[in-house]
Inverse folding.
């Protein structure tokens, strides 16, 4: 027959409430020895590992805080630089606009001056051509007068003859061309 602890207790064998002092001392010694072994070989390294981990975490937090402060300083610096660059760009844009306006004014002034010089040259050329034309007319008048005089000297003429002679001289001059220009 198989006996179980409950059956043995019922028959007077095993009693859980019954205390065996030898077993209690042996349990206490075993527990204390195991506690000392664990204290020396397990809890010490575990505690030192936990303390090292806490120190690494604290160091990482301090480093992160330092990095955050540095990043904020860099962000502020870059923000300031961007603002400076934007103001420099605005200044350069304004300078370019004023330079363009100055160049446009210079170009207009040069164009006006050039137009004035061209107009003055054209006026001088027209005046020169007018003077030359008057000179040519005078020469032709002299030649015409000499031609008329030479015809008059050849014979004495009345009004009808003078008109006919003048028309004849003008007709001859028209076929010959202006005197003094074409080498005549």
């Amino acid at each position: 027959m198989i006996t179980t602890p409950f059956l043995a207790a019922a028959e007077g064998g095993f009693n859980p409430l019954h205390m065996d002092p030898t077993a209690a001392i042996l349990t206490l010694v075993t527990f204390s020895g195991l506690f000392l072994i664990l204290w020396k070989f397990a809890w010490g390294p575990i505690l030192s590992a936990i303390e090292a981990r806490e120190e690494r975490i604290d160091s990482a937090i301090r480093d992160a805080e330092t990095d955050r402060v540095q990043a904020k300083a860099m962000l502020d610096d870059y923000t300031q630089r961007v603002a400076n660059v934007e103001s420099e760009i605005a200044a350069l844009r304004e300078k370019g606009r004023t330079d363009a306006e100055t160049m446009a004014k210079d170009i207009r002034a040069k164009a006006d001056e050039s137009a004035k010089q061209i107009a003055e040259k054209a006026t001088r050329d027209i005046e020169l051509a007018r003077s030359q034309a008057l000179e040519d007319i005078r020469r032709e008048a002299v030649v015409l007068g000499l031609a008329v005089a030479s015809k008059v000297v050849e014979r004495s003429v009345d009004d009808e003859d003078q008109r006919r002679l003048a028309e004849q001289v003008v007709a001859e001059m028209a076929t010959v061309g202006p005197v003094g220009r074409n080498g005549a």
Summary: The first helix runs from residue 5 to 10.
